[in-house]
Design brief:
It is built from six helices and no strands. The protein has 157 residues and is mainly α. The longest helix is centred in the C-terminal third of the chain and has 30 residues. The chain is elongated and about 50 Å long. It starts with a helix and ends in a 5-residue tail after the last helix.
Amino acid sequence: MEEETADRPDVSIHPPTVFFAALLIGFTMRAFTGGMLPMPRVFGEGVGGLLMLAGLAAAISAVSAFAESGETLRPSTPSNELLTDGMYRYSRNPIYLAMVLFGVGFGFATLNLWIILTTAAAGAVFHYFVIPPEESYLERKFGSEFRDYKAQVRRWL
């Protein structure tokens, strides 16, 4: 591995693109195939609104932790500090958790089953193809500090 690429996670997928693609695909699929959730709109909007607010709160907390530490959100850059405060006390991946909560909430709020399913698929992409290389990098970079953190804090919640 070249020295310039050694100090960064080997992630070739851009998570925000996956998330927004999931929302767009879910919206498009409903337009062409149906897929309306069979529940009262007020219930869907209530549940969806709560999930979306939870997702926004998680995202704000996680992004604030990045900003306070001087870290960048770009996954292709080196990490200088292991974040363990704020939402990182409850989830090792609060930004991905925030995306999934928001997407599922948006699906409920719009009664769109496809958005819920495509958001779940985006979460699976994060779980199997984005998070493992990031965690492998963090373990190489921070060693026992990351292993201890990993033993105490769940991947999602």
